[in-house]
Design the sequence.
């Protein structure tokens, strides 16, 4: 038992030491050009989206950010996440800058630094095509508006008296409007125009202006990093002077939105003219890549580490010592009593406050492993207890100690009992990895969302994602059958 | 001549229930001792105490040169385990429900102790195991899993497994009670052979006729004490009333 405890402590130590070692190593061979990590959605055309042809992140804000980086001499590293994860990621020190058409407002100015504005736009109210009783902000009173949680438009909608329904991205909102599930949304005129041009949708329309205020959008920096902000400002001034900003704007909007009162904005749509079949074909590879580089490694690492944790927790749970039993009980209770989503947020956005700053993949692995560990521990414990008492006695009489009895006699028999329920845990885990997108992991479902945000072909793309998940799970269930035969071959 | 097994003042309680109230016994090398008694008399607890599957509250158990005084066990866990392990290694145990390892073949069951615990080279352990299987009449069944054997065969493997560790004394806890009647004979025959070869045996059994055949010593337990002891003649002509009643009941049931 003592050896098991030491192993547990070493394992925990290793996990905690990982982040401490990693940054130290990278700081030693830092390049002369500073690496600037820019956070962006990648699902917000035309400002930030994945070009379906090249698979690269592009868009107006991305091109501006790249131009700024080139002028300022930065190495730009793009980090993708949902809109609502961008500001937490900055708070947690995971990104140095946000380029996502972020509107300047007093709340944000209190917590973050803004560059000089490079986009001027105004808000519009969007409704379903058939809605004719909403044209001004006053009409929103008592109606339901779909908004991103941390978007500045959310406050505008709330101030107008609307009930707010939270969503992740604009393309979802558009679908909710068309389906009549929400009444309206407020968003930037350019983003809405792009959606209308891309989707060719006649189901939603711009119903009116959301006030007459002009909004200014800029790059966002942490409060502590005014040097980086100053470099960006210098670069933006130079880009404005040499006409680069105006040129990028003309390319996307056929007018210069980088100055106030640009006049009529024309949006050609970031994705037009592809058939559904083509959209699916184009998305198939990025989704497969997300599966191979995100979903599957995440599943394998989390399951293996999770089983190890589970085994230790299960052995601790059946220990004769209260001091060993109690922590295992608490751990299992916490894991089973809290949502996985909350666990992911705590590991990724909470632990950095305590100085434990894990990158996306290790963070997702840690949270998922701990989660699997909690559930599997109870399965393993029950399986060990299901091995007849006489087996322990027989092992004792031939002189085996605790560790050898477990390893040679009890666990092989417990494995046979545990395989079917542990397979269930694995199948759940495969599907739970889709939550890892909240910690900026790009996995299968995130890729489906990315493709859907540009093309608006929800049904086809989400069905394709479902098919991918089903295939993985089917293969796993075949493996389960084979494993059940193998660990149970002695039973007649 | 000193006895091979010596037990003095053995006491054991489970909660408020005093199962053993001071048991003394001695077993000479090369003899067979039969423990008899009604259910709950403590005979199985005595047997399990010899192998330290139960830890007695008080009393001394000695087998050959290994001895443990349970009233003053070492406080240090490691030292205590070493003392108990040394005593345990002197005896082999055969269970009523055989308790074979179901995930190992017959051969695997036999070599598990010698290879894993005694660190015997595998080839040597396998060679020994084959001899033992021959002895219990199961040559050729090395690769069978326990579930593929009959109850009688399983119990014979159980005996061979206990013998594989070369114990000084073999303990058998009602080795035929869980068997179908037609399978009892083959197991008893194996035990008879072992007794004839001069292996030291301590057997808890209800098979009075078999006991009469093999027993050099009969111990009749009742209420946690040895109520009567003697040679095999105790079974023919008991002096104690309790022994008479018990034998009458057991023989009647046959």
Sequence:
């Amino acid at each position: 038992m003592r050896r098991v405890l030491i192993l547990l402590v070493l394992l925990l130590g290793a996990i905690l030491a990982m982040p401490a070692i990693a940054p130290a190593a990278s700081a030693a061979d830092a390049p002369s050009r500073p690496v600037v990590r820019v956070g962006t959605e990648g699902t917000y055309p035309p400002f930030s989206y994945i070009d379906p042809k090249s698979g690269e992140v592009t868009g107006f804000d991305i091109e501006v950010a790249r131009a700024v980086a080139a002028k300022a001499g930065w190495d730009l590293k793009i980090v993708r996440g949902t809109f609502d994860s961008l500001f937490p990621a900055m708070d947690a020190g995971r990104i140095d800058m946000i380029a996502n058409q972020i509107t300047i407002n007093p709340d944000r100015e209190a917590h973050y630094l803004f560059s000089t504005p490079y986009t001027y736009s105004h808000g519009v109210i969007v409704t379903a095509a058939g809605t004719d009783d909403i044209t001004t902000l006053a009409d929103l009173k008592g109606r339901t508006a779909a908004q991103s949680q941390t978007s500045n438009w959310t406050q505008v909608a709330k101030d107008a008296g609307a009930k707010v329904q939270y969503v992740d991205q604009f393309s979802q909102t558009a679908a909710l409007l068309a389906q009549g599930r929400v009444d309206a949304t407020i968003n930037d005129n350019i983003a809405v125009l792009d959606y209308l041009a891309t989707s060719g949708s006649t189901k939603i329309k711009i119903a009116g202006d959301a006030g007459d205020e002009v909004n200014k959008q800029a790059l966002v920096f942490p409060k502590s990093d005014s040097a980086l902000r100053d470099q960006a400002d210098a670069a933006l001034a130079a880009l404005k002077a040499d006409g680069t900003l105006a040129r990028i704007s003309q390319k996307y909007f056929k007018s210069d939105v980088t100055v106030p009162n640009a006049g009529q904005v024309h949006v050609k749509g970031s994705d037009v003219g592809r058939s559904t079949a083509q959209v699916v074909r184009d998305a198939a590879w990025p989704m497969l890549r997300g599966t191979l580089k995100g979903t599957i490694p995440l599943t394998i690492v989390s399951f293996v580490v999770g089983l190890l944790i589970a085994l230790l927790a299960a052995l601790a749970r059946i220990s004769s010592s209260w001091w060993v039993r109690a922590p295992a009980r608490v751990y299992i209770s916490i894991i089973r009593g809290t949502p996985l989503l909350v666990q992911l947020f705590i590991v990724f956005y909470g632990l950095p406050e305590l100085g434990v700053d894990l990158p996306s993949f290790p963070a997702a692995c840690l949270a998922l492993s701990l989660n699997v560990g909690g559930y599997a521990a109870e399965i393993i414990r029950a399986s060990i207890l299901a091995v007849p008492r006489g087996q322990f006695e027989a092992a004792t009489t031939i002189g085996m100690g605790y560790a050898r009895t477990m390893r040679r006699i009890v666990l092989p028999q417990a494995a046979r009992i545990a395989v079917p329920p542990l397979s269930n845990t694995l199948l759940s885990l495969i599907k739970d990895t889709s939550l890892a997108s909240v910690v900026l992991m790009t996995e299968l479902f995130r890729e489906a969302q990315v493709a859907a945000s540009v093309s608006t072909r929800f049904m086809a793309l989400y069905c394709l994602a479902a098919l991918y998940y089903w295939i993985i799970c089917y293969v796993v269930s075949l493996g389960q059958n084979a494993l059940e035969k193998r660990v149970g071959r002695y039973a007649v | 001549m000193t006895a091979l097994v010596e037990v003095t003042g053995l006491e054991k309680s489970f909660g408020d229930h005093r199962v053993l109230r001071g048991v003394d016994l001695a077993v000479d090398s090369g003899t067979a001792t039969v423990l008899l008694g009604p259910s709950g008399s403590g005979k199985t607890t005595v047997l399990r105490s010899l192998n330290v599957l139960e830890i007695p509250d008080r009393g001394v158990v000695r087998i050959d040169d290994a001895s443990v005084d349970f009233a003053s066990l070492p406080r240090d866990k490691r030292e205590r385990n070493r003392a108990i392990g040394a005593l345990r290694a002197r005896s082999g145990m055969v269970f009523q429900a055989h308790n074979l390892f179901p995930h190992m073949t017959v051969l695997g069951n036999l070599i598990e102790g010698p290879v894993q615990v005694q660190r015997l080279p595998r080839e040597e352990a396998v060679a020994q195991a084959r001899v033992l299987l021959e002895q219990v009449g199961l040559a050729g069944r090395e690769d069978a899993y326990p579930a593929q054997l009959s109850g009688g065969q399983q119990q014979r493997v159980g005996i061979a497994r206990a013998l594989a560790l070369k114990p000084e004394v073999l303990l058998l806890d009602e080795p035929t009670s869980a068997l179908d009647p037609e399978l009892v004979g083959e197991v008893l025959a194996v035990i008879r052979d072992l007794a004839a070869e001069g292996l030291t045996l301590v057997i808890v059994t209800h098979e009075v006729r078999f006991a009469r055949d093999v027993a050099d010593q009969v111990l009749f337990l009742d209420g946690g004490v040895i109520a009567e002891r003697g040679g095999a003649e105790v079974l023919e002509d008991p002096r104690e009333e309790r022994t008479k009643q018990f034998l009458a009941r057991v023989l009647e049931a046959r």
